[in-house]
Amino acid sequence: MYGRAVVVLLTNFGIVAFAKHDLPLDFNDIVVYAKPGDAMQLSKLTADENEDLKINCGRTRRQWLSTPYKISAGSAAKLGQFPWAVALTTISQKRYNYCGGSIISKRHILTAAHCFMKYENDQLPCTTATNLDDITEVIVRYGGICLRSDSPPCDGKLCMTARINKIAIHRRFMDDGCIGGFDFAIIEMESDLMFGTTTSAICLPNSSLDLNSAENLFDYGFGDNENGESMSRLNYGSAKIISVGEKTDFIRAGPIHKPKNKTIYQGICVGDSGGGLQGFVKQRVFLLGVHSFGPKTCYSGSPFTVTDTRPYAQLMCDLTGICYHLSPLK
């Protein structure tokens, strides 16, 4: 259905100048794609579910290392290091991801809007949002670190599967031809994900979070390796923030440095779109941004762009009932 071009598109387009926009954003600017007869709005968390997220989000059971790891050109994640990381696949290609995402509640995932767009001849600007028939073909893989056990071999836990119910995308992303910012999408699942030792939600930041307070920044995803090969295992890499848009929703980030004894840099690549840029704040892990696009060459060490999640704190609350982050977590 999608093939792999939908992710190549933005990673090959270089650095695009974002149009300026004012925040906060209007709730009415959100377009929800749902099954015929279903309400055109996302299912919201209850007050108790929101309180549970406030207590338990962003906690990982794996000890983190200071050694720089890679997504492309890199090392594999351990089970439980990224319990919020997911892969988006299709029914026909469920062993291979085309985008990533992050669990933000038992029934909501945050990913990139361009993962659900159609492109004519793989060129921007985009034309229209994908049809609902296409959306129902999407499968979420979660709760593990392997999409498949072979080709290449992966000796970790295989990911479970879940189906998508609805998707919410900001109208401005489409109206601006997919190059003017707003590159995020909220996925609502058909049923709640099974949380446990290998599955949990990452914390969302509030709009006033100082990015300088975030430590140990990492990117994660199931994207291609340095040889352009589809990876079967979740990988991650250390990152740094280079700049933040003053009136835009983008963050420019990049690898910290080239690993020793390597001729290529770490970085995001094809298939990493929609995955997360995370950082530690007071022993909790926060989703600072969503992978949007990067340089033409995955391993050049050039900056890549992520959608800043902070401007959308109130919008996330209005749409999903995930509201704990409107006040700073303790």
From TrEMBL:
PROSITE patterns xrefs: TRYPSIN_DOM, TRYPSIN_HIS
Give an example GO molecular function: serine-type endopeptidase activity
User: Does the keyword Lipid biosynthesis feature in the UniProt annotation?
Assistant: no
Task: Indicate yes or no for the key word Transport.
Answer: no
**Which keywords accompany this UniProt record?**
Signal
Q: Which residues form the Peptidase S1 domain?
A: 71-330
Secretion signal, residue range per the UniProt entry: 1-19
In terms of PANTHER family, this protein maps to:
PTHR24260, TRYPSIN-LIKE PROTEASE TRY-5
Protein name, as recorded: Bm5896
Q: What is the organism field in this record?
A: Brugia malayi
Organism taxonomic ancestry: Eukaryota, Metazoa, Ecdysozoa, Nematoda, Chromadorea
